[in-house]
């Protein structure tokens, strides 16, 4: 494995909190310029892993390498290359956005010029509010200022823990656009922890899935999205008996509490399903389907844990 191809490498991390082992021999690596979702049920160890990656807590054993630098042996050199927002951005509400940026710039070991501060303000689209006090900011604006602070020192790796919490749909879309721009234009590698599978599907290239502190799998989100045989469609139709007879001629079906489930259906086939039912003069009341990343996630984790969808 070439470290320069993988700016973040996690090797055999273990961590016990109290009497419970939270992380078990966890290993994964991230390719440069890609956006990774970090998925797992509540209590699976995502935040603990992130805290170890950014050196907020120490692992019992194992190692994290950032641009080839060991977080335990070369901490300062490693942290030069990483930015992070763990939970909520740490902001000074009584200061303006610009004053916050300058404060954090002054704390950096290497000088950060005003030109770089102005650049990140433009990147996160805060020019209109950067001289206003942060206490007047919306939650989405605070998130964007937090990202601006985390990328001030031009990190090659950015870690975000639940970045869309509390954002409205427009704020989520704006944040997605900013993160994808970072990855595509600046080759920043992102690890985004989230419970929102639909957002991960729109944002990410790949997803790292853990359960009970262990790696379950790493999957390509784009591949999953293109797999035509990964969908389960549920149709509310009446009368059900006749609908089953019609559908079973072409598709695998069964009754569920929500209606008739049709398995292994391509997205492009949904109009054909509806047409077949309409041709039989049956009443179709609703059509729904599971997102394909959601299908993959639950097939890997057996649906365990309290995932918030």
Keywords:
309 residues; alpha/beta; Rossmann fold; Alpha-Beta Plaits; 2 domains; 6-stranded mixed β-sheet; 4-stranded antiparallel β-sheet; 11 helices; 14 strands; 34% helix; globular; disordered C terminus; nucleotide-binding; ABC_transporter-like_CS; ATP-binding
- Stated plainly, the CATH topology of the largest domain is called Rossmann fold
Going by CATH, what is the homologous superfamily of the largest domain? P-loop containing nucleotide triphosphate hydrolases
- Supply Rg: 23 Å
Q: Give the low-pLDDT segments.
A: 304-309
CATH class wording of the largest domain: Alpha Beta
Strand content: 25-35%
Give me the CATH architecture of the largest domain, please: 3-Layer(aba) Sandwich
Give the fraction of residues assigned to helices: 25-40%
Distance from first to last alpha carbon: 36 Å
Give the helices and strands as they follow along the chain.
Answer: EEEHEEHEHHHEHEHEEHEHEEHEH
Mean pLDDT: 86
InterPro entries: AAA+_ATPase (IPR003593), ABC_transporter-like_ATP-bd (IPR003439), ABC_transporter-like_CS (IPR017871), P-loop_NTPase (IPR027417)
Protein name: ABC-2 type transport system ATP-binding protein
GO molecular function: ATP binding
Keywords: ATP-binding, Nucleotide-binding, Transport
């Amino acid at each position: 494995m070439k470290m320069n191809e993988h700016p973040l490498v996690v090797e055999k991390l273990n961590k016990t909190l109290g009497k419970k082992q939270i992380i078990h021999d966890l290993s994964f690596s991230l390719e440069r310029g890609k956006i990774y979702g970090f998925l797992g049920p509540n209590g699976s160890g995502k935040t603990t892993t992130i805290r170890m990656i950014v050196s907020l807590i120490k692992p019992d054993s194992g190692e994290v390498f950032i641009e080839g630098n060991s977080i335990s042996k070369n901490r300062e050199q490693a942290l030069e290359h990483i930015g992070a927002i763990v939970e909520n951005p740490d902001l000074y509400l009584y200061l303006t956005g610009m004053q916050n940026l300058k404060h954090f710039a002054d704390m950096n070991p290497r000088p950060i010029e005003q030109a770089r501060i102005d650049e990140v303000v433009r990147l996160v689209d805060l020019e209109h509010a950067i001289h206003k006090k942060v206490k007047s900011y919306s939650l989405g604006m605070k998130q964007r200022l937090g990202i601006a602070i985390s990328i001030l020192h031009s990190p090659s790796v950015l870690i975000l823990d639940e970045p869309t919490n509390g954002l409205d749909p427009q704020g989520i879309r704006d944040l997605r656009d900013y993160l994808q721009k970072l990855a595509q234009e600046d080759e920043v590698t992102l690890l985004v922890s989230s419970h929102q599978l639909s957002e991960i599907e729109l944002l990410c290239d790949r997803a790292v899935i853990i359960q009970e502190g262990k790696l379950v799998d790493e999957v390509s989100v784009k591949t999953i999205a293109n797999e035509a045989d990964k969908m389960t469609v549920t149709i509310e139709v009446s009368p059900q008996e006749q609908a089953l007879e019609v559908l079973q001629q072409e598709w695998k079906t069964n009754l569920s509490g929500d209606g008739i489930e049709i398995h292994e259906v391509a997205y492009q086939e949904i109009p054909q399903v509806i047409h077949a039912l309409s041709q039989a003069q049956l009443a179709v009341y609703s059509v729904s389907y599971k997102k394909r990343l959601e299908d993959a996630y639950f097939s890997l984790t057996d649906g365990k844990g309290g995932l918030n969808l």
